[in-house]
Design brief:
Blueprint (H helix, E strand, L loop, with lengths): L12 H4 L11 H27 L5 H20 L4 H26 L3 H21 L7 H25 L13 H30 L6 H31 L1
Helix pairs in contact: 2-4, 2-8, 3-4, 4-8, 5-7, 5-8, 6-7, 7-8
Length: 246
Amino acid sequence: MMRSGNPALKDDIFQAARAQRGDEAMTLQGTVNKTGIALFILMATAMWSWARHTQGYPVGGLMLLGGLGGFVTAMVTIFKKDAAPYTVPVYAALEGLLLGALSATYEARYPGIVMNAVGLTFGTLFALLAAYTSRLIAVTDNMRLGIAAATGGIMVVYLIDMVMGFFGVRIPFIHASGPVGIAFSLFVVGLAAFNLVMDFDFIERGADSGAPKYMEWYGAFGLLVTLIWLYLEMLRLLAKLQSRRD
């Protein structure tokens, strides 16, 4: 059974969607191409949002639009997968608005942090992809189950923390720059990175199963979700580390 910690890539998604006889099927190269297009769109809107922040324009509205709009678009993509060729570019553009403004905010407080976070995120992506394609990392059912369970646990922690935040209370230590907070961020960064491996494995199996062509966009969506998560966790970790030096 296929299993991924990524909520966008759940069990049996690709098995449930099969290309009809004579239709074009999903390929690994097609998914790579779609992922590249989505990343290009995200970076374009992120640079525009970043520029608005650096020019002194208020970006709170852009962050709200990107965050809420991205969430709604993600939900539409998850529940209507055949719309992925249309919704994924929109999702990438909206997330770019959020990430650009948020990144500019971090950069203003911690100069140089964004380039470091971007470099670490893509460095992790390519390193893990190389390890996966060379079979240095063996993906087993137990590994899939463990990563999925750990990811679900972290999502629950974040959800509880968000609800508590409405009442002016946060889960102690995990947001601080002390040893516990840094250890927590290191764990989450590692978990997000291993989700990339799960995504590679899931997409490869999906291509082998003969999924329809639109699932290339859905596979790209799953990778994009994980990359955004990994980047945000890198930002948080680097901010904590820099806070300790200040």
